[in-house]
Amino acid sequence: MRACVTGGNGFIGSFLVEKLLQENWSVRCLVRRTSNLRWLNGLDIELHYGDLHDLPSLEKAVRDMDVVFHLGGVTKAMTEEDYIKGNFSATLNVVNACQKSGAAKQKLIYVSSQAAGGPSKHGEPLTEEQAIHPISAYGRSKRMAEEAVLQYSQTRPATIIRPPSVYGPRDEDFFVLFKNVKKGIIPVPGDGRQQVSIVYISDLIDGIYLATVNEKADGEIFFISDDRAVSFAQLGQIISTALHKKAIPLHIPLWLVQGLAFLSVGVSKITGKPPLLNGDKVLEMRQPGWVCSNEKAKKLLGFQPGVEVEEGMAATAEWYKKNGWL
Known about the structure:
Distance between the termini: 39 Å
CATH topology of the domain at 2-167 and 198-225 and 290-307: Rossmann fold
CATH class of the domain at 2-167 and 198-225 and 290-307: Alpha Beta
Largest sheet: 7 strands, parallel
Order of helices and strands: EHEEHEHEHEEHEEEHEEHEHHEHH
CATH superfamily of the domain at 2-167 and 198-225 and 290-307: NAD(P)-binding Rossmann-like Domain
Shape: globular
Number of strands: 14
Helix content: 40-55%
């Protein structure tokens, strides 16, 4: 089997590329000339230089491929228009390239985000059908991209994967929490009761692969997550145990987080770099929860998460230490 992967040099994408190679697939990665290829160096893959906004390069990238995995996009941007360009417009370009250059049986796998579905309420895990109410610019842009893929799926095989927060070796987002815990602090926004779904990287990759090889996945959206929801306070304690480091929870009032977000946005306007914290992030923190159901993936794909959060955080901590991150 032959696959084209966009975003293959990223955290999730690099693990997907490794999985495909293990399954004896031929892999072509669409990358920019300026892309950091540290996770792809030494792998037996074809590098195709191009851009998600360069249709000719996209058409060449997807030609003769059995499956196109679209993971490329933006998670941080200055404006909603930037999110739309980086996520919706880029995905629409991939869809158009597949329609023009791909065979009729070519399958498209789009890795979206839980943000496209929106938050959960009253502690109830959201199903794929319920979760269509994004509340952030990022989530709206990902939902727009999903709609483009769903329309494409009416005539060709396509599947959408919605991961929640993903952690594991190579991840730089949870790494911030690990660094704080190592300093003896567990930062907890608000009262710390908000529950979130998470997934270990190998479980997510297994779920993506199951959706790729199963025809029942065509035209469907799947949450791929752990069975268990946790709070960031709980995560901090789990990481504390993994690092063998005593850490104290530090509750940060959301009004203070809102003020920090205002400052962060102001600084970003001066530097021209996307803010690490903004109003959308604070809005997400104010929600009762971000919990999704993986029952559909279990039922249709045979998905079963195999890594408990304690095991996954311990393995992640060990990787950070071994590679000099901590």
